[in-house]
Amino acid sequence: MIKPLLIKATKLTKGDALDIGAFYGFDALFLASKGFKVTAVEKDKLLAEQICSMEEDNLKVINKDIVDFKFDQYNLINCSFVLHFLRGKARNTIDKIKHSTKLNGINLIITFLDVGDFENKHEGLFARNELKGLYAGWEILNYFEEEVKTKELNTGGSFKKQMAAFLLARKARKIRK
Ligand SMILES: C[S@@+](CC[C@H](N)C(=O)[O-])C[C@H]1O[C@@H](n2cnc3c(N)ncnc32)[C@H](O)[C@@H]1O
Description:
Helix content is 21%, strand content 37%. It has five helices and seven strands, in the order αβαβαββαβαββ. α2 (26-33) links the parallel β1 and β2.
């Protein structure tokens, strides 16, 4: 299912899009189908090859760690369920995402909070309201925190649940640095 906030994002801007941690390419292909010129960055070689094999004209796939990626300027950046992998580099990556967004461009960030079943409370997990705070000066179109079912299993065999922050924001004309 395509994320409702991603559908909303495509109605707010057009042009160049960056999809970070593209996985099987669902979000990237959706963006391409909506007319965006999409760059999808995926660290996993097999996944990157799989997306490439879709041969979508408006989709460029880059097999790279986002930490080493040289950002361009984009109208829309989607970074969903990836930042926790980056641990201590998660917040610096948000800085890069913000700086690489064109004026009036849109960011969709979905990231796990340090509240839930994950046993390892590492620095890639965000505090409540932290993500919203990092977007001070931007126009916050949507912000909410809600529990999501992850793909990790508890010892009992049920899926772990973890709180996540969902943010859709626009780089407004007057930006506080
Ligand atoms: C949980 S999946 C999220 C997929 C997709 N963004 C979504 O919202 O459904 C995380 C993806 O990010 C990729 N990934 C993890 N660390 C990364 C990194 N440092 N740079 C680029 N991709 C990364 C993983 O290989 C995986 O495909």
